[in-house]
Amino acid sequence: MLLRDRVIVISGVGPGLGRGLALQCARAGADVVLAARTRERLDAVAEEVAGLGRRAVTVPADITDDDACRELARIAVETCGRVDGLVNNAFAVPPLTDLGTVDLDAVRAGFETNVLGALRLTRLLTPALVEHGGSVVMINSAVLRHSRRTFGAYKMAKSALLAMAQSLATELGPRGVRVNTVAPGYIWADNLKWYFGHLARERGVPARQIYDETAAALDLRRLPEPDEIADAVVFLLSPMARAITGQCLDVNGGEYHH
Predict the structure, then answer these.
(1) In terms of pTM, does the model score above 0.85?
(2) Cα 21 from chain centroid (whole Å)
């Protein structure tokens, strides 16, 4: 119960990592404020949180919209009375095209969600976080650790998110707020399962073969699941990490060493 009776705001709640974050925070004793653009996804996860005996407040919101974010922050504070943690998990896939030919407007759009949206929410919730010595966790990506072709815009956005988190740690640390980053690699959830199935059909091999070939490049020989990423986030939100700020914790099964 590392987060007993705390309130955690989580953006980008969906069926994969967002759901895992909500449920692991609830299992750790927290009430959660869940934000996403899709009401149906929010309601489904909220029902699971309630089944664990914790409260879930749902707020449909687009974090690229100033008014929507202000309303999210207002509801979180007024409904729950406090905010102890913020997990910036909302994500928009940047264009997967070489930087030499990528559409710059599409790159800007990716930054709006992946970087500026996270900054917007963090700024709005800073007063509440300061009041309770809170913690912010940015969900990043293992794209930080490689420079493969077509991933340039993705890496640009996530590198900016990391730099922002480090700068916020310096700015907010004197006010008692910690800011850290978790960088997952592969996450064995629905989207990746679908993709591996697609690759398997293209090659005419079992999906398990795609999994095994991918996992062979990881030290642990298996792909992390959403709850395992979420557990690292719970740790950084909790008092167990009270002296940790400005750091990036890679959770990738040993695919990259950092």
Answers:
(1) yes
(2) 8
Question: What is the spatial distance between Cα 211 and Cα 209, in angstroms, rounded to a whole number?
Answer: 5
186 labelled catalytic: no
Catalytic residue among 154, 195, 211, 256: 154
**Cβ(13)–Cβ(41) below 8 Å:** yes
Give domain status of residue 257, yes or no: no
Kindly report, residue by residue over 167-223, the tens digit of the pLDDT: 999 999 999 999 999 999 999 999 899 999 999 999 999 999 999 999 999 999 999
Name the residue type at position 166.
Answer: Q
**Maximum separation of any 2 CA atoms in the chain, in Å:** 57
**What is the radius of gyration, based on Cα positions, of the chain?**
18
Q: Are 228 and 24 in contact (CB under 8 A)?
A: no
Domain that holds residue 215: 188-223
Question: Is 258 contained in some domain?
Answer: no
The count of structural domains within the chain is 2
